[in-house]
Design goal:
Elements (H helix, E strand, L loop, with lengths): L17 E9 L2 E5 L13 H12 L4 H5 L4 E9 L5 E8 L3 H12 L7 E3 L2 E13 L2
Length: 135
């Protein structure tokens, strides 16, 4: 039996969970732009609706977590690089190993996004999104 997942994406607020990086080195690291400085945010194919659909169709509730009645919100951080590829995926705040692993797996498997733009050039953008596992 397939259990439904509630995927918590804050539609219009999703861009607030991101920031971009430029090429200016500061102490050996990329400097960060504020979100408001981007010309355009990265975009998942078919926008936020497409992202919600992708997640709801591709996340499988881990059997171990089901058996133990484990629920919760996993925060996954990732980067959309200059080509739109999803990189550097990590669960930054997890619930349970099996839920964390599934959230990371599905984000790593995402198709390429349209990259974020700054001054007419693509830039890296880091996102953190919550994925709520609930049955």
């Amino acid at each position: 039996m397939r259990f439904k997942l509630i995927i918590l994406l804050i539609g219009m607020a999703l861009p607030l969970l991101s920031y971009s990086q430029n090429n200016n080195a500061v102490n050996g690291k990329d400097a960060e732009y504020a979100v408001s400085e981007l010309d355009s945010q990265p975009e998942f194919p078919n926008g936020n609706d497409g992202l919600v659909k992708y997640l709801s169709e591709n996340i499988n509730y881990p059997k171990k977590a089901l058996k133990k009645n484990i629920m919760g919100k996993v925060y996954v951080q990732f980067v959309i690089d200059k080509t739109g590829k999803v990189t550097d995926v990590v669960a930054v705040r997890g619930v349970d190993k099996s839920l964390d692993k599934e959230a990371v797996r599905v984000i790593k498997a995402m198709p390429s996004w349209k990259p974020g733009m700054k001054d007419g050039a693509p830039v890296k953008v880091k996102y953190t999104i919550p994925i709520n596992f609930k049955f």
